[in-house]
Structure formats: structure tokens, C-alpha cells
Design a protein that fits this description.
Blueprint: E1 2-6, E2 9-11, E3 17-24, E4 32-38, E5 45-51, E6 57-59, E7 67-72, E8 77-82, E9 91-99, E10 102-105, E11 109-113
Parallel strand pairs: 2-11
Antiparallel strand pairs: 1-3, 3-8, 4-5, 4-9, 5-6, 7-8, 9-10, 9-11
């Protein structure tokens, strides 16, 4: 089982980026896919979730209205598009897949928002 994130990096305030997470080793479409982040010195927080059944999505208040989670089941990939980035969005971003008691994590990708 593997979740591999990409798309992080340095971006200026007000900018955008799209994080990707490619999954392998499990039935991607059966799982709820989530994005988390962990800012420096803070706890990990849930940002966004998507259920492949029905495409239901949910967002944390900190990113709602400026971010979109989506999946491409043909590529076993979950995305997080983030716009209007702020310095407080600086964090390590993690991909997560959950099905009942089964849970998998990616290694994380660093996002730094700075001028």
C-alpha cells in the first residue's frame, strides 16, 4: 500500500497550487480520501474529505470556499486545489485513505506560503 503526495513547494501569498496523491495497493474507489495538514509546532488537522460513492465532500472552515478536493478513479489519484493561499497555510500536507478500521497515510509534502 502506498500513498504518494506531490505538488507542494514555495508559493507567494494569494497564489494557488494543486496537490496530488497517487494511491496503490488497495481498492481506491472503496475508501474515503482525506487531506490533512500539520503546521509547524501544531497538531495535524483534517482539511477536506471526499467519498467516491456519491462524491460527497467536506471542508474545514480554514479552507472552505477557496479549495476543492476531487478524485480521478482512473488514475487512483486524489487532488486538493487550493487558491488564495495565505501564510497560515504553510504546513506539511498529508493524504489519507480510510475504510472502517483500515487507514493509510502518505509521507507528506511541504507547502510554504511566503513572499
Amino acid at each position: 500500500v502506498q500513498l504518494v503526495e506531490s505538488g507542494g513547494g514555495l508559493v507567494q501569498p494569494g497564489g494557488s497550487l494543486r496537490l496530488s496523491c497517487v494511491a496503490s495497493g488497495f481498492t481506491f474507489s472503496d475508501y474515503v480520501l482525506n487531506w490533512y495538514r500539520q503546521p509547524p509546532g501544531k497538531e495535524r488537522e483534517l482539511l477536506a474529505s471526499i467519498s467516491n460513492y456519491g462524491g460527497h465532500t467536506g471542508y474545514a472552515g480554514s479552507i472552505r470556499g477557496r479549495s476543492t478536493i476531487s478524485t480521478d478513479n482512473t488514475k487512483n489519484t486524489v487532488y486538493l486545489q487550493m487558491n488564495s493561499l495565505k501564510s497560515e497555510d504553510t504546513a506539511v500536507y498529508y493524504c489519507n485513505a480510510r475504510l472502517g478500521s483500515l487507514e493509510y497515510w502518505g509521507q507528506g509534502t511541504q507547502v510554504t506560503v511566503s513572499s
